[in-house]
Amino acid sequence: MLAPERSRIACLAALLVGASALHAEVKVLKGFTLIDGSGRPPLANAAMVIDAGRIVWVGPVAQLKVPAGVETIDLAGKYVMPGIINLHGHLGNTIGLTQDAKFFTRENVEKNLDTYASYGVTAMLSMGTDQDLIFEIRDRQRAGRPSTTRVFTAGQGFIFKGGYGGIAGVNQGVSSVAEVEPAVAVQARKKVDMIKLWMDDELGRLPKMPYPISKAIIDAAHRHHLRAAAHIFYLQDAKQLTEYGVDGLAHSVRDKPIDQALIESMKKHGTWQLAATLSREASMFVYAGPAPFLTDPFFMRGVSPVVVETLRTPAYRESISSGAHFREYPAFLETAKRNLKTLVDAGVKYGFGTDSGPPGRFPGYFEHWEMELMVEAGLTPAEVLTAATRNAAEFLGANDLGTLERSKWADLIVLDRNPLDDIRNTRTIDAVYIAGNRVK
């Protein structure tokens, strides 16, 4: 055989091998109604082409053109939406109903991420109670195609020494302005995605972080080109931290109705209501009931039977109802709901988060409950879905997440029913995909 002919055959073989490898990475979803997260109207009878985990084409089935031999998945009658992004969770520190820093192991963190993924939460921001193992897990995800929920992290968040917040032995306690810059620099060198601080006194039980220290943390975060998010409870603290330029409020104001001054300040400084955490507020009293979801299969599939039985016991219910501030918690929830609705109607930027992870706040289920509570607060299902997808990705600066558009990662949920008709339909999960691969 002549050398040129051998060369031509070798090139052809290489091309065929390459095409085969490409097609092995390509999958086509078709026949579904697309809710792409952008705010555009749903697209009926839609199709999507995914290659190596990313969307390379999306549009009407009538315009679909794909090579022969690729995997095609018929989703006729289904609804497809972007994966949920939780901007406020905590990973790896809880087993059962006990929280302890010693539980922060690779096994427990990955178990939490897998649970989130099974509920369609395809990305989450862990807010300030992580140990350094989290950076290895996160960086390995970002170097390839994750098969479980994507993690963003605030590393070790900031508390006032002797004050409220965080987990003992994990968080960075500061007692003076002078301590702030070196401590923030440590987090910056670890390449955290966010700086977190706690501004609270637990209803007067503990000392609160002084304002000069909180300002120093926010300023230092910005010098290191990092965003700063704050746990707050009181209106006055929200107003003060917003004036300091905090980028996000990690909870709703819960002590009183917000005022026009806060609204104007949040708009002026670009401060987000990054999470309302309504499910967190409800969890403070719901188990005295007992909670109605304790018999819900959608809840029970993500929680151990031992925990479910414990939550049902009279002793556990009594431990909740006998709390010093138990009778105040329902009012805090209602205030949080009204304040969220006021901010959204005023045009303040808002995201989505739950504070899931600590005992009694269950990853996965709480994100769906949060959406239901946001609708109860007066938001439309469309506003809630946008908050939990496009808006949340925008706050993270994750430009390849949050909507189902060309070049984005194919992180998505396949639903049996339309969540725009009833937000509880987000629970009708048929399948979850992360980076184009179906979650097992």
Any key phrases for this structure?
single chain; 440 residues; alpha/beta; Urease, subunit C, domain 1; TIM Barrel; 2 domains; eight-stranded mixed sheet; four-stranded parallel sheet; disordered N terminus
Could you give a quick summary of the protein structure above?
The protein has 440 residues and is of the alpha/beta class. The protein has 14 helices and 19 strands. A hairpin with a 2-residue loop joins strand 18 and strand 19.
Description:
It is built from 14 helices and 19 strands. By secondary structure, the protein is of the alpha/beta class. The chain folds into two domains: 22-81 and 407-438, Urease, subunit C, domain 1 (Roll); 84-396, Alpha-Beta Barrel (TIM Barrel), CATH 3.20.20. The strands form five sheets. Strands 1, 2, 3, 4, 5, 17, 18 and 19 form an eight-stranded mixed β-sheet that branches. A four-stranded parallel β-sheet has the order 13-14-15-16. The relative contact order is 0.15. Mean pLDDT is 94; it is low at 1-23.
Q: At the fourth CATH level, what is the homologous superfamily of the largest domain?
A: Metal-dependent hydrolases
Largest sheet data: 8 strands, mixed
**Got a strand count?**
19
Q: Report how far apart the termini are.
A: 50 Å
The name CATH uses for the topology of the largest domain is TIM Barrel
Structure classification: alpha/beta
Indicate the radius of gyration in whole angstroms.
23 Å
Low-confidence parts, pLDDT < 50 over ≥5 residues?
A: 1-23
Number of helical elements: 14
Q: What is the overall pLDDT average?
A: 94
- Apparent shape: globular
CATH architecture of the largest domain: Alpha-Beta Barrel
Write down the CATH class of the largest domain.
Alpha Beta
Number of domains: 2
Helix percent band: 25-40%
Strand content: 15-25%
